[in-house]
Amino acid sequence: MTGYSPAPVDRAPARPAGGPAPARRAPRGTRLERFAPLVFVAPAVLVVVLLRLWPLLLGVNFSFTGDGVRNGTAVGLDNYVTLFGDPLFRTALRNVGLLVLLLPVAVAIPGLLATFIHLKVPGHRVYRGVYFFPAVLSPVIVGAIFNLLLAFDGPVNAALGAIGLGPVDWLGDPGVAIFAVVGVHVWATFGMALVVFLAGFSTLDSSLLDAAKVDGASLPQTIRHVIVPGLSRTIQFVFVTTMIGMLTSMFGLLYVMTSGGPAGSTYLPEYYVWFQQGNLNQPALASAASTVLFLIMLVVGLAQIGILRRAGKED
């Protein structure tokens, strides 16, 4: 009769008393999961770097070179000195300051309209479509329409004359033209901001609105104490995107309605960039203007976010 032999048992070597615990190796699956998001994001990052950041860096570098006979020659800050000495560019910067002052109005209009639609005022479904309709029109079409409406002998001045008000030279008066163009731009583009606000309302806690209604809060009180704090992130987004749109998307309207006139009063940096590159063939100076425009958007955007965040914390 053979004796019974138990199977050998593998035993891990005993850890010395007080010694360090053996390092545990992370499972292979965990490491792969950690790098998986980077793999998915990499194509988008590559596109941004190649099509956005790299051309931006090339443009900034090009702004330090010369035009004409000095083409490709390093000129230091000469282009920026020329830029800020140009009255047209200084007018464009003043108009940027005007846009910043008018920005709260451009954001408040779609915000209030979205509030009324969310509160389901009579006809809110019709208003939703009507308000968005201008956003699908080309800036060239919008400019051509308002050229007819705002002409000195056009329908708007005819209506003003019917109520005893004198005609206004909407597009020919240097003190009025920039306001006319900005007003048309706001009318043509606030539909997109309206959609963003409506999307923000879908995340707002409806019980807060019900509580404000039960407490007898008026509409201004509801907007200030419930809607604005609840939509603070949405408001920040709309502020920044509206400002960027004003600085970079008004070329079509300016070209069709005023061509920068009268007397250069409606120049904005983007129109100045086109004029220097397309008409005067000064790409280096245009690159310098583009760099200044980028810095303006960066500073204004960060300042707006900081102010709105501070206001949200105070509320």
From TrEMBL:
Residues 1-26 are annotated as: Disordered. Residues 1-24 have a biased composition (Low complexity). It is found in: Cell membrane. Belongs to the binding-protein-dependent transport system permease family. One of its GO terms (biological process) is transmembrane transport. One of its GO terms (cellular component) is plasma membrane. Residues 88-304 form the ABC transmembrane type-1 domain. The keyword Cytoplasm does not apply. Keywords: Cell membrane, Membrane, Sugar transport, Transmembrane, Transmembrane helix, Transport. This is Multiple sugar transport system permease protein. It is a multi-pass membrane protein. It comes from the Bacteria. The chain crosses the membrane at residues 35-54, 96-119, 131-152, 176-199, 237-257, 284-308. It comes from Amycolatopsis tolypomycina.
